[in-house]
Sequence to fold (1069 residues):
Amino acid sequence: MKARVHVTLKNGVLDPQGKAIGHSLNRLGFPEVGDVRQGKFIELELAETDQAKAKARVEDMCKKLLANTVIENYSIELVG
Amino acid sequence: MTVAQEKNPPVKLPNEPAITPQIVAEHGLAPDEYERLLKIMGREPTMVELGIFSAMWSEHCSYKSSKVWLKKLPTKAPWVIQGPGENAGVIDIGDGQAAIFKMESHNHPSYIEPYQGAATGVGGILRDVFTMGARPVANLNALRFGDPKNPRTRHLVSGVVAGIAGYGNCMGIPTVGGETNFHAAYNGNILVNAMTVGVAPTDKIFYAAATGVGNPMVYVGSKTGRDGIHGATMSSTEFNEDSESKRPTVQVGDPFVEKLLLEACLELMATDAIIAIQDMGAAGLTSSSFEMAAKGGLGLVMELDKVPMRETGMNPYELMLSESQERMLMVLKPGREDEARKIFEKWELDFAVIGHLTDTERMVLTWHGDVVGNIPIPPLVTEAPMYERPWTLTPLPAELDAAKVPAPGNSPADWQASLVALMSSPDLASKAWIWHQYDHLIMGNTAIRPQGGDAALVRVPGASKAAGHKGAGHKGLAMTSDCTPRYVQAHPETGGRQAVAEAWRNITAVGARPLAVTDNMNFGNPQKPEIMGQFAGAIMGMAEACTALDFPVVSGNVSLYNETEGRPILPTPTIGAVGVIDDIATSVGSRLVKAGLALVLIGDTRGWLGQSIYLRELHGREEGAPPPVDLAVERRNGDFVRDQIVGRKVEACHDLSDGGLLVALAEMCLSGSTGASIRLPAGAPAPHAFLYGEDQGRYLIATDDGGALVEAATRAGVPAVLLGYSGGPDIAVEGLLSVPLQELRDAHEAWLPGYMNSAA
Amino acid sequence: MKSAILVFPGSNREGDVAQALELVTGRRPSLVWHGDGDFEKVDLIVVPGGFSYGDYLRCGAMAAQSPVMAEVKKRAAQGVPVLGICNGFQIVTEAGLLPGTLMRNSHLKFVCADVHLKVETSQSLFTNRYQAGQVIKVPVAHAEGNYFADPDTMKKLEDRGQIAFRYCAPDGTVDGRGNPNGSSSNIAGVFNETKTVLGLMPHPENAVEPMFGGTDGRGLFEGMVEALS
Fold:
């Protein structure tokens, strides 16, 4: 199965890249854009078939490597 | 070991199209070139064979329009170890050490995708240098962008600079110098010329020529994907509006992998397992394998299914033409494969034996056991098209009388405004916004940083310990890149001469001996006689200057078809140059850091305003003949200046170029945060011609003893005049102007960041 | 003083710090490959600058998980001094040896420039050659040096005197003008609680020779020699 991991900066942590994207969009004629948060999307191919086990393993991966929990949140989506 | 397969005609792959005139045209081959191909092959080619001919006979790989002219450049000197024709030029810098360097363009890819185009340009030139066994010690970049008012310019500057920074910084090679100009002629075709300088022991230099029938051919580095297929042919045709849709052909660089490749290659080079090595640059596996076999007078068999692949479903055509980055091809001594494999696996890089050398002088390509390509190697090289294209020289424009150029005005305020305007004009404004994004300090050897002198100066690692080194201190390499395209446009011969002379002067101005040149010839469509005439004229001027200054060309690159919808760039023969100084402690920069120093002008000043920055920026005119370059005078003045510097008679030195004397003085004052006041000498031409004229062969020197310097110059037959002294918070010219340094600094430093941060 | 410099795939300032240590100690430090879980006993471990693993995912994240870092954590817990410079600072924070993290520079660009640092304390094995309040000039070269920690952590760092260096103006004023990356409280370097681990973004190793960036960084290496020999 596949795991899709989204990593984003925690609310309240300054996101300079998101801010720059927001400014550019405003400049390009999208004044409706307010706050922008930029993150990462990571897709993992897993040999595991058990949903619960897979979820636990990916949680572990997020804590150990994929996200820096000092500043980042993560969410996991399992597909297939 | 010899294979008889060349007697077997190749098989066609499933779905392989028949070769039609349209397919031939899409491969950039003219009908007569295709006839030539048929004669060599004796039959219709397969697609992969057609692709190989197309790549090898592209302007980029074959130099078919430029070769007859490039042969006119001097390439030899006692210190030249390897001239043009290898991955990079090699010169002897003493103590058993060699400097290996080259400059190369990545113009078209950088226009289409500025970040990746510039990044892979840096990656490519680094590979050219470390392929030869050198550890790169410095990078330089010569950049030319369109009019700042052009809507695309800001995006291109931002992407190109970030791309150079992203690649060079990650590799850990300092980017120490370069130049950045703006001109509307580059609106549709920017120039990104990247130069790398490396150092190697003279007895450990690696070449491309393969030897030893049966020896294994080894592929190392990244896997092959579909990147940049037909990049080499793309960079050899004129742009049109749908070039922007060619985006997928641009390669993506991975500096992290290149760093691993550098370390792995140098580790393997420290053994004696390598016979020949060649990086995969333009036209990837095709040109690298051809070069190695052709230079060795051998043939080869390559099993293309063994090439490490990044994508599924790739075919021989794609594998031969892919321009995926960070790859190398090597010939190893027999039996050394395992030793080499271990090193590359330690660095987590791909390693595959993909073929072997034969004595057939044919390139045989197989795909899962079937022969899919079989090309005779020598005729593809010897029968390659070579054109002596018609050329028309640009006539020398009439000299512009300085009296016909208005002075800035009559009041000190007018004069003051003229200097502020020049120092904040796009070409002369501070480029700190750019070079602060480049790590210029890594390796701990940078003695002269950007804006610190006319040339960058880098300590040569290991030099002080090298046996037989004469000086007590460390040896240094001085390096620079230079060209004044508006002079070349006005009169290519003068412009070519001037570009070489100024590069030589830059090296001289830090106290180093200029040794050799790499040239990056950027021009428009060579099928137009006036463009070919620019090329021819520039080469004539360069050849003359290189000969007169003992400054041979040891490597280079040609980029033609820099035109969009018929509008060519300014002819831009960028000159990269390298020199050496025996004891780096005797070098000087251009910063004026203390008060009370005498300021002495070396060289004659007629007040040449034709094609000057003053004329262009303040009066909107690009007119007249460019300043003439007297090579004998150039040499006499330069040799005198260098002797004074290494004799420790000089505190700071700056050559006079764009903007003339007053701009040079302002640059020295700003970089050293010390003011100065000067007066016009007796017999000087009109003040604006004296202060802003761009006469050649001149230097401004700061010294403790102005009288002694002028006397020494007079004895040497060198014109020299004391102009004034350093000190105070202002830059002042008696009776004309006085500008507070701070005001000038604000204008000088604000332009580029202000431009980059303003909305599109 | 025996020292070891860790080398990860993509490290690129290990040579610079080796050169500086050799200049000051007269002894060439050993280089330790990232895959080596065990290495000889040393008085100082240096995690150098560079782009370990290409800075992919997050700067320092992958290097922090390497076998050699497990060993470094063990030795740091026993009190062996650890110096993390630039990417090394990012690695030691990712490994949990120092609090906080290094984010993208606020202006989003790589910056290579001389900066001025105010030495916050001379009471450490790294800074004993400097005076508290002294201003030194050393270069930075990074794209992710924007120090961040949550408010509780920041308060603890301040209260316990764990801030080693702050960016300042040439006259020593700390008001944000000398801050090259948007770092919280102008922090350029921090200690662990026992002041045996130092992480800093600037490169003192590129300021140890008069002709090559000045000598203001030399005190850090001389101080360590004095404390550790």
Observations:
- Chain C touches chain B at residues 9-10, 12-13, 15-16, 19-20, 50-51, 53-56, 109-113, 139, 141, 143, 203, 205-206, 208-209, 211-213 (CB under 8 Å).
- The CA atoms of residues 19 and 28 of chain C lie 8 Å apart.
- The first strand of chain C starts at residue 3 and ends at 7.
- DSSP finds five helices and eleven strands in chain C.
